[in-house]
Design a protein that fits this description.
Blueprint (H helix, E strand, L loop, with lengths): L2 H4 L6 H24 L1 H9 L6 H30 L2 H18 L8 H23 L2 H4 L5 H32 L4 H26 L13 H10 L5 H30 L5 H29 L1 H21 L3 H29 L5 H29 L4 H18 L5 H11 L1
Helix pairs in contact: 2-8, 2-9, 2-11, 4-6, 4-10, 4-15, 5-6, 5-9, 6-15, 8-9, 8-12, 8-14, 11-14, 11-15, 11-16, 12-13, 12-14, 13-14, 13-16, 15-16
Amino acid sequence: MQKASALAPEVKLREVWAWSMYDFANSGYTTVVITAVFSAYFVGVVAGKAPWATFAWTAALSVSYLAVLLSAPLLGAWADAHAAKKRLLLYATVGCVGFTAALYFTGSGAVALAVVLVVLSNFFFATGENLIAAFLPELADSKAMGRVSGWGWAFGYLGGLVSLGVSLLYITWAQGEGQTGAQFVPVTMLITAVVFALCATPTFLFLQERAQPQTREGKAWTRVLHTLHRAQQYRDLRRFLVCILFYQAGIMAVIALAAIYAQEEMKFTQTQTIVLILVVNVTAAIGAFGFGYLQDAIGHVRAMALILAGWIVMIATAYVAEDAPTFWVAANLAGLCMGSSQAAGRAIVGYLAPRTREAEFFGLWGLAVKAASIFGPLTYGAVTWIFEGDHRLGILAVGAYFVIGLALLPGIDVERGRRAALHSA
């Protein structure tokens, strides 16, 4: 990490580490709750493998993302106006940690309680994700957005590895004691909540709020309407947000349903699935860290095109996989692409966002991501329901979103978009 070439003036490495620690902390929620453990537990135990179980899981996630979609631009605009990104981030963290811990009380048949808690915990998780991303332009040099964003995402995947690893140790011990999933999975929710709270602490101790209050610019909704009114000025960012809307639909379907696919289609046990996700987190960290440097070297649009092509290859591999080794190849290719695409997308938005409206524009980024998170997993859930549990058709259906995202990339000029952002700052 060479400070002179990567970080903004007066930003110290300790502060970037503290910022990255939030990615480290909150990744445990995504990895354990959404991807590896609770999703499969919800389908298999809470909903008793009912025909509608996978659709119910995707519907719960979609409701939470709809709430984020509606609130993110307003919260971002309010945070910019009041220089309150860090304050709102604290509220979001407390909400996610608390409702994740409450998942301990779910069990067989408690579908309504599980759905409510997933909706609330995921809402606060996604809100915090938007807010922490809005600090990126304050920390990174404009020419190093890819690298610094990649550091955060790479560190984040290692955090998911820690949470899942501790959970696996507990599950292995519990299984040795003769416990069932209905007994040990709820405890992993407590483990995830505690790791999140502890690891996020450095963020609130060392990350600075550099923004200045801008209350003269009016209320939050006025600022959002002003941004939408001037949307033509930000046409490159607008086109990229549309691109995000599609490719993120595919990514969120993979995140939300990876464990379910492994369990239902590939017949993996819960322990095999957790080990798979552990390894995938390592490849995702490698992808996020390494690709950030490549992105800064070859350009944002070229890097994203390469990533989306990789996603398409991954979908094709998973679709044809008949044995565990082939599925492992597909899963690790997904890890590389996931780490790369998450870091690259955040960096591009940071590069195109006006300096005085960072939280607001990352709220729009969150709006696009969460809109994608609604119809991506729902597409998969609906296909498996309609076609009586055909998970291969489900994964093929969401693959179409990567193709559309790739088709939308031509025409985006990030340097023109950067000039527009600097002109309006």
